[in-house]
Amino acid sequence: MSYPFSLVLHTHLPMVVNHGRWPHGSDWLNEAAFECYLPLLETAHRLVADGISPKWTINLSPVLTEQLASPEFQKELSFYYENVRRACVESREFFSKLNEKQIVGLTYFWEEFYERMWELHRRIGGDIPGTFAELQRGGHLEIITCAATHGYLPLLSRDESIHLQLRTGVEAHKRHFGRAPRGIWLPECAYRPRYEWTAPTGPERGRDRRMRPGIEEMLAQHNLEYFVADSHLVAAGEPVFLYRDYIPMRLEMSQEPAPMPSSTPRSPYHPYRVASRGGTGTATAFIRDPRSTLQVWSRDHGYPGEFHYLEFHKKHFPGGLRFWRISDSSGDLGRKQVYDPKIAAEKVGLQASHFVGVVKETIDANRDSIGALVCSPYDSELFGHWWFEGPMWLEHVAREMHRAGVQPMTLGESMKAVQPQGPLTLPEGSWGEGGDHRVWLNRDTEWTWDRVYSAEHEWVEHLRQGDGGNAELKRLLNQVSRELLLLQSSDWQFLITTGAARDYAERRVAEHYAEFKRLSEMANTLRGGEPLSIEAADTLRRLEREDFVFPDLDIAWAQPPKS
Description:
Layout: E1 3-11, H1 26-49, E2 56-60, H2 62-68, H3 71-97, H4 101-123, H5 128-137, E3 141-146, H6 159-177, E4 184-185, E5 195-197, E6 210-212, H7 215-221, E7 226-229, H8 232-235, E8 272-274, E9 283-287, H9 290-297, H10 341-365, E10 374-379, H11 390-404, E11 406-408, H12 411-417, E12 421-424, H13 446-465, H14 471-487, H15 490-498, H16 502-527, H17 534-546
Parallel strand pairs: 1-2, 1-10, 1-11, 2-3, 3-4, 7-9, 8-12
Antiparallel strand pairs: 5-6, 8-9
Helix pairs in contact: 1-3, 1-4, 1-5, 1-11, 2-6, 3-4, 10-11, 13-14, 13-16, 14-16, 15-16
């Protein structure tokens, strides 16, 4: 009996290199590299060495990949490594004086962990994206793409912006991974069908109404065949709030998501061909399995809340090392007990077996004449960063599935194994709090969309006028487009709404908007026949150096590809 299963990992961080270090900035990327990306590679290599192909589908967002491939990241990671090594020694000295023998032992545990990850990094030549690409060439995983800077596509006001996000993502993917992507992770799993759209905020709200294509139509234009959608979009069920358990929401929930306009419940255990009414293109949606994903995501009811696992929030300063376990559900950091890696490892094995049982039960309960598929998508940073034992759990799950007859497959392989149903019209929504756009558009973030919409309007006017064959103007307009892409990152609204790094996110929006405006004015100066001043030329060079992503960016990518 076949049990098809697809694990999907969404791997993303916004542009942080050259934009601060601690507490917000490149240290986010360094932490994720040491605690998530390198452990995932180590896990995959160990499984492959034992003859087990993990068959993960993994998205490395284009903006993250550009950073991981940059010399600046290598410098930052080396600096970070020296700091954590020093933290291990200093923490050992501190707790030795207190006669805290168990914590002293954990300083050696952390020292060994960081040395092992650094050695892996050295062994792969510092090339994290290239090592994932090597695993893909071996058939052990599939790499899909994402919008270039994780722009929140349904709320962008111009189709040209969406085309730029998609085309830039596809081109960056081909450059780093050597082949075109077949699938895409829609940022925040946010989807919008074809309809007459108007800006939800700003001066054009309710005035400029335009019929806009569904997201699936635009994906088809870029040869992107499939994406992942949240289960409430197909089943009209309650959305599972994936972020609530990790970052407490402070947003007042005053509006419930609209139910799906259908009287026929649809199963999340089949992929569906998605087509908007009157649309001209389709794409296949794989649906998030609510049961298996909640089992992992929920800190209250899922595996990461196990009391013997490492507590994420309590750290020893200076150094930032973690020595305590979750201990209880009180949230009182003063009551946390010392972490024991051996006991945690035992819990991992038990929970992996339980998860495989859940997958088998779910498929058995949802079988029909054409089979069923469990699609379990997660943020990669959950595994190792938020949940330190996560990569170990993934390894145990892969081994247990190998023994239990569960058949892991990539989304590309699933397209052949499980016939998509449909066509189906999906409603608008996301996998965020409330299942709609409220995390990214609310009273606290409206002003950011005013900036985005203003910049998009100005940018489209530059597109209309073109560069007139002026090489310097073309270079300038490409940097204008980079600043627009960075301004559009959905991370800024998320960090503002959750309060996780509100000041940092607000500053980044203001900075990218200001740089966009400055460059736009410089472009108008060139169009007027005046040369750039020395100061303006220096500004352009500085921004090309600081915001270095997508070096081959072409403003022409804002237009739909020619068929």
